[in-house]
Specification:
This protein has helices at residues 2-18, 122-139, 145-160, 163-166, 175-181, 184-200, 205-217, 221-238, 241-259, 264-278, 286-295, 299-331, 337-347, 353-376, 380-395, 399-405, 409-427, 430-442, 446-463, 466-483, 490-501, 511-522, 529-552, and strands at 21-30, 41-46, 49-55, 61-68, 77-82, 89-92, 97-100, 106-111, 114-115. The protein is α+β, with helices and mostly antiparallel strands. Among the domains are: 20-115, Aromatic compound dioxygenase (Protocatechuate 3,4-Dioxygenase, subunit A); 173-204 and 350-407, no CATH class. The longest helix has 33 residues, at 299-331. It starts with a helix and ends with a helix. Residues 4-8 and 10-19 have low confidence and may be disordered.
């Protein structure tokens, strides 16, 4: 025992005498657009020897502290930064401050903020090929969209943990990054609102609303479609567009079945209007929330600058929808409208008034939380989850039945897999490359900046999720706003209009589109990618063109 204590003392004495110097290094790592980079491996080198090691946090910052050998040469300290898909950087640690801690040990304090540049690696091409390939599979309906997205996400992760294990240049995305890429705010919001709508369906409210909507239109199906479009747009300006479609799509399907017309003649104008209406306010669409937070823009700023042009776009698209569905609207014409209304009034009644009162109370509570969630710093999904829990408690509904029959699990899985695929494109630099291209082409021209920011945002948002794309574009637009004379907030409006309206371009361009397609499919009317593209793409191009002209003339 004495021998053990003797050797232990010798070891401790050696440690104290050899490691009496502490080193503290911190900083922030960003990409070329000024966005923070997480999970960068930071190594502090003394010559060629690694003495300290850490990784950056989600905001790109790092801080590392530890004991190093005594009597080190500060001029021999380096910082090495490594992350797959980025060029490895090795920088000398300069501006080192020498101090002493409370134990009178020597402390060297250094700071290094570094910008890392992208490297085009095999991982970049893998993520790009998978992204394009999945888009093609969904477009040509080779597989169900959920199966296609699952194949893509699985392939990316499988490649990362097989080829990427032996060669980091093939590492596309880690499991942790994939989980982080999934926007659970969207997933939980969708699931919770599906539960609320599923319980509300038991009251007969949607059938009753179908009757009332038809009664207001007095049998004119085109007028009915216009009413539903504007109701959808206004609701989407204050709720999110997914929630609006979850509430209104069942009503529209009931009306279409009642009139014996194709439900798409009502659903398509509505879902396009939901994405348009959501563009008009700060809280209507996630990109607007991100832009408002980053650029310090208020609710009134969005309404004053975007609502007028959105109103014009809605009016123009009313006639666009008549062009597409005019013949279908004529099929819904009824000779004796009054007689049909009497019949519908008798058939489409409220079946459970007590449950309806509970449901409306819960829905009102959720809407109030949606409107005030910014002030409460509450994610919209939390409001929806609270509403779902409350309505299940008040209604006594069978949770197993609701989960099995009302929650669109295929839609939720599709979103999760798509988030991973887009997340891989972000991690490997494809989205960043688009942003760099926009910045380089725009130069100092306000006209070019408006055109490129708006159209690139619109086309990109039609193909990939607009949330990560908007996040990447925020520092780019901020840079352009600062460098272009008299830019004001115009480029922020260009980004908002492009990112939000671009979602109308394809079936996968906006969450509301996918949810509406899922509801229609469950009702027996599968909505194909090609069908949506045929109507949504022209509506998107018309809307974005009007927006561009509006901004160019100083609207």
């Amino acid at each position: 025992m004495k021998r053990f204590l003797f050797f232990l003392g010798i070891i401790l004495l050696f440690s104290v005498s050899s490691y009496a110097t502490n080193l503290r290094v911190g900083g922030v790592v960003k990409n070329e657009h000024g966005s923070p980079i997480d999970e960068v491996e930071i190594s502090i080198l003394l010559g060629d020897k690694v003495v300290l090691h850490t990784t950056t946090t989600s905001n790109g910052s790092y801080f590392i502290e530890g004991a190093v050998q005594d009597n080190i040469d500060p001029n021999n300290l380096f910082v090495e930064l490594k992350k797959s898909t980025y060029k490895t950087e090795k920088r000398k640690l300069v501006d080192i401050l020498k101090s002493q801690d409370e134990n009178h040990n020597t402390v060297y304090i250094g700071t290094l903020n570094q910008t890392m540049l992208r490297a085009i690696t095999p991982a970049f091409w893998i993520s790009l090929i998978v992204l394009v390939g999945i888009f093609v599979l969904i477009s040509f309906e080779v597989f169900h969209r959920t199966v296609a997205a699952l194949i893509g996400a699985s392939l990316l992760l499988f490649t990362s943990y097989t080829l990427g294990t032996f060669n980091e240049n093939y590492f596309v995305i880690s499991f942790e990054e994939a989980i982080h890429a999934i926007d659970f705010n969207v997933i939980l919001l969708l699931m919770s609102m599906m539960i609320i709508v599923g319980v509300m369906k038991k009251t007969g409210i949607f059938q009753w609303l179908a009757y009332k909507s038809y009664a207001i239109s007095k049998g004119n199906v085109f007028k009915l479609s216009v009413i539903l479009m504007f109701v959808t747009a206004v609701a989407s300006a204050f709720l999110d567009n997914v929630t609006t479609m979850l509430l209104l799509a069942p009503v529209s399907i009931e009306i279409a079945i009642m009139l014996k017309i194709n439900p798409f003649s009502l659903l398509m104008p509505e879902v396009l209007a939901s994405n348009m209406g959501g563009t008009a306010t700060l809280i209507g669409d996630p990109p607007n929330i991100m832009i408002g937070s980053f650029a310090h823009l208020t609710f009134n700023d969005f309404v004053i600058n975007l609502a007028p042009v959105i109103l014009i776009i809605l009016i123009v698209n009313v006639f666009v929808m008549k062009l597409f569905f005019g013949k279908e609207y004529k099929k819904g014409k009824v000779d004796n409208v009054d007689e049909l209304l009497v019949k519908l009034k008798e058939e489409y009644k409220i079946t459970d008034a007590k449950l309806l009162r509970h449901s409306l109370f819960v829905l009102g509570f959720v809407i109030l939380l949606f409107i005030t969630h910014g002030m409460l710093h509450m994610e919209p999904s939390i409001a929806a989850m609270a509403g779902a829990a409350l309505i299940l408690l008040l209604s006594g509904a069978d949770i197993t039945e609701i989960m099995e029959k009302e929650v669109e699990w295929a839609t939720l899985v599709f979103f999760m897999m798509l988030f991973i695929i887009v997340g891989a494109a972000v991690e490997t630099g494809f989205i960043s490359m688009i942003a760099t291209w926009v910045k380089d082409l725009s130069g100092n021209s306000m006209v070019l900046a408006i055109i490129f920011v708006m159209w690139v945002s619109a086309i990109a948002s039609a193909i990939i999720d607009n949330i990560p794309f908007t996040a990447t574009m925020l520092p780019v637009v901020a840079y352009l706003t600062q460098t272009i004379p008299n830019a004001g907030n115009t480029l922020w409006w260009a980004l908002a209009l492009g990112a939000c309206l671009g979602g109308n371009g394809t079936l996968i361009g906006a969450s509301a589109n996918v949810v509406t397609a899922g509801l229609a499919e469950r009702a027996g009317y599968p909505m194909t990618f090609g069908y949506f593209l045929k109507i949504g793409a022209p509506a998107m191009f018309i809307s974005v063109t009007i927006s561009m002209i509006w901004l160019l003339i100083g609207g």
